[in-house]
Amino acid sequence: MEIRELRYFVAAAEELHFGKAAQRLGIAQPPLSRTITQLERRLGIALLERTSRKVTLTEAGAVLLAEAHAILSAVTAAERHTQQAATAHPSVVLAVKTGTVGELLTKLLDAYAAEPGAATVDLLLCEAHQHQRLLRDGQADVALLHLPFDSAAGLDTETLCTEGQVAILPASHPLAGRPQVRMADITTLPTLPMARWPGPGGSYPEGPGAEVRNLTQLFQLIALGRTTVVIPESAAADLRRDLAAVPVVDAPPVTTVIAWPPHSRLRAVADLIRVATRL
């Protein structure tokens, strides 16, 4: 299969409309249709079901769509990494979730900057479910993840630290003055349902809690008395005055890891990981 064929197929599979897919690709519709037909003929299977009214993915087409995403992401990453290797002033892109790992991140950046020949570190602030895609696509070289909340599947990792968790509540809530609480105390609050984070695919689990994407949005909703959350202790540093953090004694510990794609060969990434694990 050719890269061009995969790009054409992905556009058609995502748009489920040949006219819109051709417009997205900046080509005429007939070459798009011919390319996908040739691809199906070579594979000996139907990837798309076409009728006069709609286009749908076959089961085989859904499999190829997932594989094509991975392949095209790898191509994009290869292009960027190759260009990086040839530059006189390399940089490394570090993906972190907005509002988290503040103290750890500051220490890491300061320690790495003090290293001889340190590359420029560009921070890429992202949302909870985006790390893997950013690393896979080559938009980020390395990321800070929190296990078990974030998935590290398919990535190489080194453990940096482990910490407990706290419940974030409105400062006026009756539980806010307690020295500690248990998970059952937080998950059964009728007026403060637990916030819901998006999964790896970007969709939210079912439930009554507010849908959130970052800590800034989350803390605003908690202050308004709409939701609550249990998060790592470090994420509650410098908490706003109208919120309170209460230790949750039976919440599972959270492990912060530095993660990178296993095929990475960038020296700047290796140096950053070495400094992180030393810290």
Automatic annotation (TrEMBL):
PROSITE patterns: HTH_LYSR (PS50931). SUPFAM superfamilies: Periplasmic binding protein-like II (SSF53850), Winged helix' DNA-binding domain (SSF46785). Residues 1-58 form the HTH lysR-type domain. The keyword Protein biosynthesis does not apply. GO terms for molecular function: DNA binding; DNA-binding transcription factor activity. Pfam families: HTH_1, LysR_substrate. It comes from the Bacteria. Keywords: DNA-binding, Transcription, Transcription regulation. One of its GO terms (cellular component) is protein-DNA complex. InterPro entries: LysR_HTH_N, LysR_subst-bd, WH-like_DNA-bd_sf, WH_DNA-bd_sf. Belongs to the LysR transcriptional regulatory family. This is LysR family transcriptional regulator. It comes from Streptomyces sparsogenes DSM 40356.
